[in-house]
């Protein structure tokens, strides 16, 4: 497997997301930053994709069900050549195609999302399609912790184990903060890994910012033979920017000029 | 009508291996033949209509034409947003077949009365909506919907709907069929309630009133030319539907007439809110709405 320097890619994705949300005065930068490392690893070599052929039949599929994290999705696609990097400046702009919630108008996007709880059933349908046709491509889905409150996910979780969709991998961006407070306060998911195990899924639990752990897990065999895989990725909302980490505020606020400069400086220091 | 449609689907799926049928655990004694003949093109996903629509979208995005099967409200209202976002937003070839449309499951209570489905489905982008009146219309419409490779809704009755058309009648989605040619009033019907419209025309003839009867198998697209033609050639129009009169077939016809500056004497026969608390057989419930011929005669 060709795995590029995903740490460097993740830093670039974070810079893009910060600039995009600043320019567009858009929310959800915290939600983007928490999954930057997951996206960098997926696009950094795990997924079988080809930017010159976005519709290549044998490609792996990724559905980002937390559609509000659109900036980090477009940033990853632009870094991989699916669209020009300069187009990121048109995020949420009038007449543009980079909608504030993930849309298939952008090449490389598999499903338009934004209303929560939609992505996993669709990813499961894709996995069923591959299973029935004997295809080797994989189906990935990233959900937020808050959206696991939606019952449609649990319908799909039940379905996927019964149909033994071992080609389906769900990644939970478990950053512990949802729209109106902490997950523990709003609708506690603990013990999340145990819930997936009880549903007959194979489960990995890891630090969602640990690239080595993500690579090893995503490229290894399913932890439960013949069953779908859930990766409970413990993350930090706003990860990478000291004054954004763990703050509900940055679900909504966009960085002003000073905050953007401070944030970018932190990423430079790490680099 | 249900059995004939599934037979037509089975034949179509035999010839088109990209077709997949999903059910949310309904269709006992109806779907078995499909499942046994084409096991790799069939899946019972369990009682989960929301996930079923998402799964259908995933299959469609992977090159399949997907047919969903369930009872009236469950594959429509229960999963409305999945249809809207996952299927219609992406303009995917997913055909929803619902059985027991209208008041076919009348005695089961309001949860099973499918009386808002047509209007709501017809509001979704890219969605084609068909409401066949008899087995001939249903069997003719199914392949037309699948051939279109777009979101589609096919609303069936329950079973045992009588044939209303002469054998060999050509049925096209967006074309009304004239079953009686009259001069005074036009009775425009969609769905199996067409049978009652025909009876009403006979009763009106006994009162010296000449009524046309037209069947509209396509709810969206509507045969607009047929509506405009009868509006110009008749003194009155009565729309007839087994669906809420607000936002249904009658509303679509009224919209069209006003948009074209036509104002014939106009009435709508259909389900009102007053029926929502009542249970009874389909025939009994429809009788509660009054007589179609009286509605028609009052317009003249």
Description:
The complex is a heterodimer of chains A (271) and B (300). With 271 residues, chain A is of the alpha/beta class. In chain A, the strands form two sheets. A five-stranded parallel beta sheet of chain A has the order 1-2-3-7-6, sandwiched between helices. A two-stranded antiparallel ribbon of chain A has the order 4-5. In chain A, β6, α9 and β7 form a beta-alpha-beta unit. The radius of gyration of chain A is 17 Å and the shape is globular. With 300 residues, chain B is α/β, with parallel strands linked by helices. Chain B is 37% helix and 21% strand. A seven-stranded mixed beta sheet of chain B has the order 2-1-3-4-6-5-10, with helices on both faces. Chain B has a five-stranded mixed beta sheet with strand order 7-9-8-11-12, sandwiched between helices. The longest helix of chain B has 14 residues. Chains A and B meet through α5 and α6 of A and α3 and α4 of B.
Structure keywords:
heterodimer; A: 271 residues; alpha/beta; 7 strands; 40% helix; B: 300 residues; seven-stranded mixed sheet; five-stranded mixed sheet; 12 strands
Can I get a quick summary?
Chain A has 271 residues and is of the alpha/beta class. Chain A is built from 10 helices and 7 strands.
How confident is the prediction overall: mean pLDDT of chain B? 97
Q: Specify the structural class of chain B.
A: alpha/beta
Query: What does the main sheet of chain B amount to?
Result: 7 strands, mixed
Beta fraction of the residues of chain A? 5-15%
Q: Structural class, judged by helices and strands of chain A?
A: alpha/beta
The helix/strand series of chain A, from N terminus to C terminus, equals HHHEHHEHEEEHHEHEH
């Amino acid at each position: 497997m060709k795995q590029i320097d995903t740490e460097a890619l993740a830093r670039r994705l974070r810079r893009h997301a910060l600039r995009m949300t600043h320019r567009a005065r858009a929310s959800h930068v915290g939600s983007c930053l928490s999954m930057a490392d997951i996206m960098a690893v997926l696009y950094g070599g795990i997924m079988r994709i080809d930017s010159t052929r976005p519709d290549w039949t044998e490609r792996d599929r990724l559905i980002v069900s937390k559609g509000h994290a659109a900036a980090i999705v477009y940033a990853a696609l632009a870094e991989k050549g699916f669209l020009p990097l300069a187009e990121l400046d048109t995020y949420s702009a009038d007449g543009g195609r980079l909608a504030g919630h993930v849309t298939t108008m952008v090449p490389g996007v598999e499903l338009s999302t934004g209303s929560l709880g939609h992505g996993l059933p669709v990813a499961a349908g894709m996995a069923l399609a591959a299973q029935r046709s004997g295809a080797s491509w994989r189906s990935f889905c990233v959900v937020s912790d808050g959206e696991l409150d939606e019952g449609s996910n649990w319908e799909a979780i039940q379905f996927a184990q019964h149909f033994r969709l071992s080609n389906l991998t769900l990644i939970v961006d478990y950053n512990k903060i949802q729209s109106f407070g902490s997950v523990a306060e709003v609708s506690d998911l603990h013990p999340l890994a145990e819930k997936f195990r009880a549903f007959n899924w194979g489960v990995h639990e890891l630090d969602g910012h640990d690239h080595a752990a993500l690579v090893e897990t995503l490229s290894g065999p399913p932890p439960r033979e013949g069953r779908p895989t859930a990766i409970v990725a413990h993350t930090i909302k706003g990860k990478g920017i000291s004054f954004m980490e763990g703050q509900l505020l940055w679900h909504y606020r966009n960085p002003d000029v000073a905050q953007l400069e401070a944030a970018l400086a932190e990423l430079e220091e790490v680099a | 009508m249900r059995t004939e449609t599934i037979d037509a689907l089975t034949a179509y799926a035999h010839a088109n291996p990209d077709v997949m049928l999903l059910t949310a655990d309904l269709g006992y004694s109806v779907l078995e033949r499909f499942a046994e003949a084409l096991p790799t093109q069939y899946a019972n996903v369990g009682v989960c209509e929301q996930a079923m629509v998402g799964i259908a979208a995933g299959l469609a995005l992977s090159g399949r034409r997907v047919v969903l099967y369930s009872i009236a409200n469950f594959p429509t209202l229960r999963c409305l947003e999945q249809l809207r976002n996952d299927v219609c937003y992406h303009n995917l070839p997913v055909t929803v077949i619902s059985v027991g449309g209208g008041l076919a499951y009348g005695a089961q209570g309001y949860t099973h009365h499918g009386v808002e489905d047509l209007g709501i489905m017809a509001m979704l982008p890219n969605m084609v909506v068909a409401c066949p009146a008899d087995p001939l219309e249903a069997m003719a419409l199914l392949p037309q919907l699948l051939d279109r490779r777009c979101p589609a809704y096919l609303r069936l009755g329950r079973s045992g709907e009588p044939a209303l058309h002469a054998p060999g009648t050509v049925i096209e989605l967006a074309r009304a069929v004239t079953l009686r040619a009259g001069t005074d009033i036009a009775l425009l019907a969609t769905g199996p309630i067409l049978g009652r419209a025909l009876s009403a025309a006979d009763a009106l003839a006994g009162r010296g009133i000449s009524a046309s009867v037209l069947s509209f198998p396509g709810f969206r697209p509507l045969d607009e030319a047929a509506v405009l033609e009868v509006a110009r050639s008749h003194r009155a129009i009565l729309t007839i539907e087994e669906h809420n009169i607000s936002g249904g077939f009658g509303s679509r016809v009224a919209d069209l007439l006003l948009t074209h500056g036509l104002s014939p004497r106009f009435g709508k026969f259909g389900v009102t809110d007053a029926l929502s608390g009542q249970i009874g057989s389909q025939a009994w419930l429809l009788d509660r709405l009054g007589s179609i011929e009286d509605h028609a005669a009052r317009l003249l």
